[in-house]
Amino acid sequence: MFTGECFEVMFELWKDRLATCSLLESCTPEGWIIVDVRDLIDGKGNDVEKVKMKIILISNLLSVGQKVVVRCIAGMSRSNTIACAAMVCMIPTHDWTYHWEKIQKKCPRAFANLEFTDTVKKALLEIGVERRLLYYE
Hints:
By secondary structure, the chain is an alpha/beta fold. It has helices spanning 48-63, 78-90, 96-106, 114-127, and strands at 11-14, 18-22, 32-36, 67-72. The protein has a single domain, classed as Protein-Tyrosine Phosphatase, Chain A, CATH 3.90.190. The chain has 4 helices and 4 strands. A 4-stranded mixed sheet has the order 1-2-4-3, covered by helices on one side. A hairpin with a 3-residue loop joins β1 (11-14) and β2 (18-22).
């Protein structure tokens, strides 16, 4: 139950420009843009196009120097998975596993929902990310 109280906690993941948080941690510092991913399903059933648009939005904001915090309800799966996707787009010299491990170090509660991750990786392929960065061959 939401009591109106919020906590100033967010997990900065990349270069002080990309972070994740939960709904209760929505008191983000000034200058950060919140991209809410609560409209995505934490599992299967997401429209790949909708997921793709979230990734593109975050990548575009980061590419013009904006600070972005990705928010979902618990700050565990959707926010961190979408943040990982944005990192793969922004830093294609490293693969999904590399970025996910970085996120897990910075955000210990990060949890990979495999069905959601699968949809996110499909969206990344449609964006043009190389398959070798997403899957072991």
